[in-house]
Design goal:
Elements: H1 4-34, H2 39-147, H3 167-171, H4 173-185, E1 189-198, E2 204-214, E3 220-221, H5 223-232, H6 236-257, E4 262-266, H7 278-287, E5 295-300, H8 301-306, H9 309-320, E6 324-330, H10 337-342, E7 345-351, H11 352-356, H12 365-374, E8 378-382, H13 387-395, E9 400-401, E10 410-411
Parallel strand pairs: 2-4, 4-5, 5-6, 6-7, 7-8, 8-9
Antiparallel strand pairs: 1-2, 1-9, 1-10, 2-3
Length: 442
């Protein structure tokens, strides 16, 4: 219809012109025949009639177009007026809705104001309670120190079951080394577990495996008492090997109850370049690589900084198997998260005292947690001993915690450390007895 309209207008105009020409010719013919005018005069009359009809047609067409344009302008004016009325109505409705929203916000604010006040008061009470508990704990610790018998060192906080190391062993390195070797040969090695919980829910997410050695006379040796001597005496490889076996046993038990649980296993960096035991450790871990997402190998910060090319190569071989690492006993917060993440570190443990020592720390605890999180590393606050520390750490968005406040290390039950009936002896150095058998699948 859009294309046929102009075409029809042109045809109509042509038809009108033809009609006017015919009428003018008819007028000229009538004048010539009826009135006896000459041909020139009749032609002039015909042309005059044609001119008059053309002028009349032009004037009437112009008037009709003007009338149509006026009608269109009137329609547009009416449409604009309707649109203005609709906009005014929409404005009134929007104003009414805004008024209702403001009224609802005022009502909600008035309703929640008492709850906010009560929550604020409750927070103050909780803080006062935490301070009171911390003061009582400090007083109890002071009384316990005063009540200790003279001449004996108190057990290290967070380690062991309260038994004291034998002073006679620490006095003589040779005797201590012999006691360590005897405990390893006789498999007098106890494993304790301490939970790592989520904050603030305090749900157990990981466990840390801690080693204890028992002497022939029943004294309990804790890692600070025997670890350095075991490294210098070349016994740490055997000790780490046995601990790793038992960690796998315990982890299989734990995964039967909770598939999201994890276990930290402390390994000495000296074992990474031990030509005797490290290849066997890699072979054992490769056979149990299904546990890689749940078994985390833990090294001290000082060990990380002292690692050479051999140790880093050993870490790379373990990382290729899918195992990840944890750095603990962190005393210096000047660390490079990017380098640690590239080496496979996924967790870093820092004591609560170091995190809360704002004047001495190089970086704020909240900033450290965010910085590590951006590189895929989780920060764990360990050695938490009071509720007051928990309250302060929660302000720093701390996600994991470990310490005596949640639970001391607990010994692993004997049934979780079962072995297969047949013994599979491992290669040994000259004069050393065979290693314990492989762990049974639990």
């Amino acid at each position: 219809m859009g294309r046929s309209g102009p075409f029809m207008l042109r045809i109509g105009a042509i038809f009108i012109v033809i009609c006017m020409v015919l009428i003018a010719g008819a007028v000229g013919a009538v004048v010539y025949l009826a009135f006896g005018m000459s041909g020139a005069e009749s032609t002039i009359v015909a042309v005059a009639a044609l001119t008059a009809m053309a002028l009349y047609n032009a004037v009437t067409t112009r008037l009709r177009d003007r009338s149509d344009l006026g009608n269109q302008i009137a329609d547009l004016s009416r449409g604009a007026a309707d649109l203005s009325r609709q906009l005014a109505e929409a404005g009134r409705r929007l104003a009414a809705i805004e008024g209702q929203g403001q009224s609802a916000a005022d009502t909600a604010r008035a309703a929640t104001a008492p709850i906010s006040a009560e929550l604020s008061e409750l927070g103050s009470l909780v803080k006062q309670l935490a301070e009171t508990v911390a003061a009582h704990e400090a007083a109890l610790a002071s009384r316990a120190r005063k009540a200790e018998p003279a001449g004996l060192d108190a057990p290290e906080l967070g380690m062991g079951d309260g038994a004291n190391a034998d002073p006679s062993l620490t006095a003589n390195r040779e005797e201590l080394l012999a006691a360590i070797r005897s405990a390893i040969d006789a498999h007098r090695i106890d494993m304790h577990l301490q939970p790592v919980v989520t904050l603030p829910q305090r749900k157990v997410r990981f466990y840390e495996a801690l080693t204890r050695l028992r002497t022939e006379d029943g004294h309990m040796l804790e890692p600070p008492a025997f670890l350095e001597q075991a490294e210098t005496g070349g016994l740490v490889g055997r000790l780490d090997h046995l601990l790793l076996f038992r960690c796998v046993q315990v982890l299989r038990r734990l995964l039967l109850k909770n598939r999201e649980i994890g276990l930290f296993c402390n390994i000495s960096a000296t074992t990474l370049n031990d030509a005797q035991y490290f290849p066997q450790m890699v072979q054992f871990l490769e056979a149990n690589r299904v546990l890689a997402p749940s078994l985390l190998l833990e090294f001290r910060q000082s060990a990380w900084r002292d690692m050479g090319s051999l140790e880093l190569e050993g870490l790379a071989s373990l990382r290729e198997l899918g195992f990840r690492f944890c750095m603990d006993q962190v005393t210096d917060l000047r660390i490079e998260p990017r380098d640690l993440a590239e080496r496979g570190v996924r967790f870093i443990k820092v004591s609560a005292a170091v995190l809360l020592a704002r004047s001495e720390a190089d970086i704020h605890a909240a900033d450290l947690s965010d910085l590590l999180h951006r590189h895929g590393i989780s920060l764990i606050a360990d050695h938490i001993e009071s509720e007051n520390q928990v309250v302060e750490l929660l302000d720093y968005d701390m996600r994991f915690g470990q310490g005596f406040l949640f639970s001391p290390p607990r010994p692993v039950r004997a049934e979780a450390l079962q072995v297969v009936p047949e013994r599979q002896e491992l290669p040994k150095r000259d004069g050393e007895p065979a290693e314990p058998p492989r762990a049974a699948a639990i």
